[in-house]
Design brief:
The protein is an alpha/beta fold and 194 residues long. The protein has one domain: Ribonuclease Z/Hydroxyacylglutathione hydrolase-like (Metallo-beta-lactamase, Chain A), CATH 3.60.15.10. Helices cover 25% and strands 22% of the residues. It is built from five helices and eleven strands; from the N terminus they run E-E-E-H-E-H-H-E-E-E-E-E-E-H-E-H. The strands form two sheets. A six-stranded mixed beta sheet has the order 1-2-3-4-5-6, covered by helices on one side. The protein has a five-stranded mixed beta sheet with strand order 7-8-9-10-11. Helix 4 packs antiparallel against helix 5. The longest helix has 14 residues. It is globular. The N and C termini lie far apart (32 Å). The model has no long low-confidence stretch (mean pLDDT 96). One of its GO terms (molecular function) is metal ion binding. This is MBL fold metallo-hydrolase. Keywords: Hydrolase, Metal-binding, Zinc. It comes from Halosegnis rubeus. Pfam families: Lactamase_B.
């Protein structure tokens, strides 16, 4: 793993994981909700260059305005029509997070604007709410949820990865850094059976 820190790791509120990716372009992936992420950024890094969203469910974006006001940064996401998104990230392009380039994978099913980010060398995946540890997968009973599309999105991520995947960073729960691809395969099997 490289310089990815979960700023919400010790929080006891309803929030997503909040990943600070340090490097030449320090990026906050999903600002989270219901805690003071600004002070955590200031304590850890002092400043950021951008905010990137995996998707726009409130637990992932509730702190966005506080972050953009304090650090005067733009927000990047899939849906340019969403009120929080300043710049569109298109499917199958690349985006700089920290010191690395990541391939953008549009992965709807949990939400229409859902994105995953796969490091170009295949080493890390920022998975949002697509898949979780131990075969968990994103809910599809919320607005814009679509179970067949979620299965297709998990299949797409599996096709894009191989055994060089060292870790995936889910939107909730722990970082999966032991046999991460097997957890994604298990998520696909679980999603197909439900």
């Amino acid at each position: 793993m490289h310089d990815i820190t979960n700023l919400a790791a010790d929080e006891q509120v309803f929030t997503s994981n909040v990943f600070l990716v340090d490097g030449k372009r320090t990026v906050l992936v999903d600002p989270g909700d219901e805690f003071d992420v600004v002070s955590k950024i200031e304590a850890r890094r002092g400043d950021i260059d951008a905010v990137v969203l995996t998707h726009t469910h409130h637990d992932h974006v509730g702190n966005t305005e506080a972050v953009t006001e304090r650090f005067d940064v733009d927000v990047w996401g899939f849906d340019p029509d969403h009120e929080l998104v300043d710049h569109e990230i298109e499917d199958d392009t690349t985006v700089a997070l920290g010191d690395r380039e990541y391939r953008v994978l549009h992965t709807p099913g949990h939400k229409n604007d859902h994105l995953c980010f796969l490091r170009e060398d295949g080493g890390d995946l920022i998975a949002g709410d697509l898949v979780f540890a131990n075969g968990g997968f994103g809910r599809t009973d919320l607005d814009e949820g679509d179970h067949p599309r979620l299965i297709e999105s998990i299949e797409r991520v599996l096709d894009a990865t191989d055994d060089s995947l060292r870790a995936f960073y889910a939107g909730h729960g722990p970082v999966v850094d032991r046999e991460p691809r097997q957890h994604i395969q298990l998520a696909l099997r679980s999603a197909r059976m439900s």
